[in-house]
Amino acid sequence: QTAQPTQKQEKNEKENGGAKATQAQKTQPKATQQPQQPAKIKVTVKVDCATAAAKNEGFESNTAAAAHSKTIELEKGATVYDALKKVCPDAKEQGGYVYKIGQLSEQDMGKLSGWMYSINGTYVQVGCKQKTLSDGDVVRWRYTCDGGADIGGAA
């Protein structure tokens, strides 16, 4: 004598493409949806030009370029340049290279002077528009008077 399937068993078989549900399938909880990654990230941006101030006593180290250290919120996928522009809207770049922040431009303090950035303490040799940030990153823009050698960023 063969047991006839109940209506519930027939419904389960239809949902499983005609296959009978195993006991494990019946008792497994339905997969819960993974929480979505936050659409926003927080990063800290620091800008300093202490080397320029040290080289030129007449240089105002408290200019807008020197005064920024701020934690900001950005959209996920934001670049180093996006973060800089939020903190220093007057920053200028060309081809991903930042040549001016505040009143301080490349070569203002000599042939090898200009702006370099690091992320979490490591200098990055990629244009600032190509480098994507992660939540918790610390971006530090520093002015070098000697091609990076005076700030630990020489290639």
Keywords:
155 residues; alpha+beta; five-stranded mixed sheet; three-stranded antiparallel sheet; 18% helix; elongated
What is the topology?
Blueprint: H1 7-15, H2 23-27, E1 40-48, H3 50-55, E2 69-75, H4 80-87, E3 92-94, E4 97-101, E5 104-105, E6 114-119, E7 122-123, E8 138-144
Question: How many β-strand stretches?
Answer: 8
Described by strand count, sense and barrel closure, the largest sheet is:
5 strands, mixed
Rounded mean pLDDT is: 82
Strand fraction equals 25-35%
- The parts where pLDDT drops under 50 for at least 5 residues are none
Major sheet strand order: 2-1-8-6-7
Assembly state of the chains shown: single chain
How far is the first residue's CA from the last residue's CA?
83 Å
Task: Give helix and strand order, one letter per element, not per position.
Answer: HHEHEHEEEEEE
Based on helices, strands and strand pairing, what is the structural class?
A: alpha+beta
- If you compute it from the alpha carbons, what radius of gyration comes out, rounded to the nearest whole angstrom? 28 Å
Shape: elongated
* Total DSSP helices: 4
Structural description of this entry:
With 155 residues, the protein is an alpha+beta fold. It has four helices and eight strands. The strands form two sheets. A five-stranded mixed beta sheet has the order 2-1-8-6-7. A three-stranded antiparallel beta sheet has the order 3-4-5, with no helix packed on it. Strand 4 and strand 5 (104-105) form a beta hairpin. The model has no long low-confidence stretch (mean pLDDT 82).
